[in-house]
Amino acid sequence: MKYLKDPAAIYEKSFQTIRSEVDLACVPEDVQPLAVRLIHACGMTDLLNDLRFSDDLVRVAREALVDGAKIITDCEMAAAGIIRRMLPASNQIVCTLNDPQTPLLAAKHETTRSAAAVELWEKHLNGAVVVIGNAPTTLFALLERLDVAPERPAVILGFPVGFVGAAESKEALHADPRGVPYATLLGRRGGSAMAGAAVNAISAGASR
What is the pLDDT, as a whole number, of residue 11? Predict the structure, then answer.
C-alpha cells in the first residue's frame, strides 16, 4: 500500500491540514498553537466552538514551566502524553492516583480514587500546572479544595471526558475558576491525549 511514512512529513502535513480547514482567527495568536494541538489530538475540527480559556493562560503557564513548576496530572495516561523533552526545565510530573494512600482516602470519604488523589496534592499544588484529562471528579474535588485551601496552582488545564460529570465539571471551572488561569473544553469531549497536547503546546512555546 502507498502511504506517507516519513514522520516529519506526516507531522507537518497534519498541522498544515488543520490550519487550512480551521479558521483560527477567533482565538488570540498565542492560543492558536494550543487549539491546533487539541484538534490534532482528537481529529475534530469543530473543537473551537467549545474551547474556553482565560486571557492570560498561555503567558502564565509558560512562565510557570520556565520557572520549574511541577505538573500535576490526574492519571498516568495524561502524564504519558506529555513530551518530556519539550519541557523547559525538566519539570517534575506528579500523579498521586496510584499512591497507596489514595484508595484508603477514597473509602474513607466515599468518593472516587480520582477525587481522593487530590488530597495528596497539598505539598505540590502551589504554583503547579494542573492537567486533568480523565476524571470529572478530580476537577470537582480540585475546585472544592480551592474554595477552602490557600494553595493556588499557576494554571488549570481541565479536559476530563465522559458522560457523567464531565460537562458539569468543566462548566463549573469556566463559570468560576477561583482566580486561576485556565483552559477547558465545554461538553463531554476531552481525554488524556488532549490534556497532554495542551501541555505540549504550551511547553513548545516556553522552550524556544
Answer: 86
